[in-house]
Amino acid sequence: MRLHPFIFGKNQPLLNAGVFLLAFLLSVIPANAYKKLDLKAADTTYRERKPSAISFNDDPVMQVDVPSIDLPFTTVGGLILVKAKVDTLEGNFVFDTGAPYLVLNKTYFRDLERTQNPADEQSGITGEGGLSEKTTIKHLKLGAFHYYKVSSDLVSLGLIENLRGVKILGLLGVALFKQCEIMIDYANSLLHLHYIKSSERKTYRHALLQDPAAYEEHEFELWENRILLKAVYGDKKLRFVVDYAAESNVLDSRLSSAVIDSVKIQSRITLTGTGSKKVEALKGELTGFRFGSISCNLPVVVTSLANSCFASNTCINGVLGFDFLSRSRLIINFVTRKLYVLK
User: Fold this and answer.
1) Residue 150's pLDDT is what?
2) DSSP letter at 244?
3) CA-to-CA dists, residue 32 to 6, 19, 131, 293, 325, angstroms
4) pLDDT for position 272
5) In 50-201, at which residue ranges do the beta strands (DSSP E only) sit?
6) Burial of 155 (0-12, 13-18, 19+ CB in 10 A)
7) Which residue has the higher pLDDT, 281 or 332?
8) 23-27, 71-75, 155-159, 268-272, range with greatest mean pLDDT
C-alpha cells in the first residue's frame, strides 16, 4: 500500500481574491483501508518511534557513472525543477521530498502499459477520490545517475502546469534518493547529490561538515518514505514533513489550542484540491516557531491534515515548505537519517 505525494501550491492573485489553490497531490490509499481510519482518534501528538530499518529492497535499481553530481535547477513559484529523462522523453521534473516515489504526468506517458486496481483510491485534502494507475519504466536518467525498472504512479499534473505555466513531466520522490546525500543550495540553484556506497555508509562525510561549528545536526525519521522532523512548540512535541515541493508551510487545525491560538490569523481562504471540491482554511503566522537555532514567525496555512494520515493511523502535525526551507542550505543524508543546517 502506498501513500502518495502532496504539493501545496499558492497563487497570489487567487489568494487576494480569497481563494487558495491547494494542489494536494493525492494520497493513494486502498478504499477499504481508508474506511477503517478513525480520524477522530488519529494520533496528532508526537511520540518517539523506532526508526525503520534501512532497506533498499523495494527501491529502484540504481547505477552511477560518477558518485557525485551537481544538478542545476530553476524555481517556479516555490517548486524546484530539474531536468531528467524517462526512457526517451526529457523535460522538467519537480524535486519532491513530499512524494514517496516517482510520479509521472499521465498526459505525456499515455502509451505506457499500466495497471489499475479498483481497490486503490486516491484521496486528497478535500476528500475527493479516484482510481490509482501504476506503471513501470525501463530507465530514468538524472544527470549521471541511472535508475532501472522504476515503479511509478500515473496522475494528472495539469492543475500545477496551468497554475505555473510550465510543462512538468513528473515528480522525483524520496525512493530515488535513499542511497544518497543531497545538499539543496537555493543561493546557487544547485542540487548536489552524492551516492553513498555500501563501504562508506559509516564513514562518508560531506566536505562542508568537517567543522562542527559550521552546522547543526538533526536526526529525522523516514516514515513510509517521508522525512519526518521533530520540533517543539512550547511544551508540545510536533512532527513535520520536510517537503521541498510544498510552496507553503501547513499546520494541522486539529492541534491543541495552545498551538493554534498562537497563530496570528490574517485571512480566511478557500482550498481547492485537484478536483472541484473546496474547503475553508485560515492563513496566518505561527509566532515564535523554533527549530534548532532558527527562530521565526512561520507563515502557515491552517487546515485539517486528516487525509494525510499514514496507513498506521499516525498523522503529521504540519508541513515545512518553501517559506521555511529556502532560508538555509540543508544537507539530507538518507542513509544515516541525519539532516544538517549549514550556518
Assistant:
1) 94
2) T
3) 21, 32, 13, 44, 36
4) 60
5) 61-64, 68-72, 74-76, 79-86, 89-95, 102-105, 114-123, 129-142, 145-155, 170-172, 180-185, 190-195
6) buried
7) 332
8) 71-75
CA distances from 22 to 167, 234, 256, 314 (A): 18, 29, 24, 22
Which of 310, 308, 254 lies closest to 281 in space, CA to CA?
254
Residue 182, beta-bridge partner list: 193, 332
What is the DSSP secondary structure assignment for residue 50, as one 8-state letter? P
Would you give the DSSP letter of residue 257? Answer: H
Question: With bands split at pLDDT 50, 70 and 90, how would you rate the model's confidence at 311?
Answer: low
- In angstroms, the CA 341 to CA 239 distance is 18
How many angstroms separate the CA atoms of 112 and 283, rounded? 41
* CATH number corresponding to 12-342: 2.40.70.10
pLDDT tops 90 at residue 59 = no
Using the structure block, give the residue that is written with the C-alpha cell 521565526: 296
CB within 8 Å of 36: residues ≥ 6 apart = none
Grid cell for residue 335 = 542513509
Q: Kindly state the average pLDDT of the residues 89-118.
A: 89
Q: 239-287, pLDDT tens digit by residue?
A: 999 999 998 899 999 999 999 999 999 999 877 654 556 778 899 999 9
List the alpha helices (DSSP H) in the chain. Answer: 12-16, 31-36, 158-164, 257-260, 322-325
Q: If you count them, how many residues does the chain have?
A: 343
Task: Please report where in the chains the cell 549549514 appears, as a residue.
Answer: 342
Question: Amino acid letter at 251?
Answer: L
Domain range list for the chain: 12-342
The secondary structure of 190-206 as a DSSP string is EEEEEE--GGGTTT---
Are 151 and 101 in contact by the 8 Å Cβ rule? The answer is yes
Does the structure show a pLDDT above 60 at 317? yes
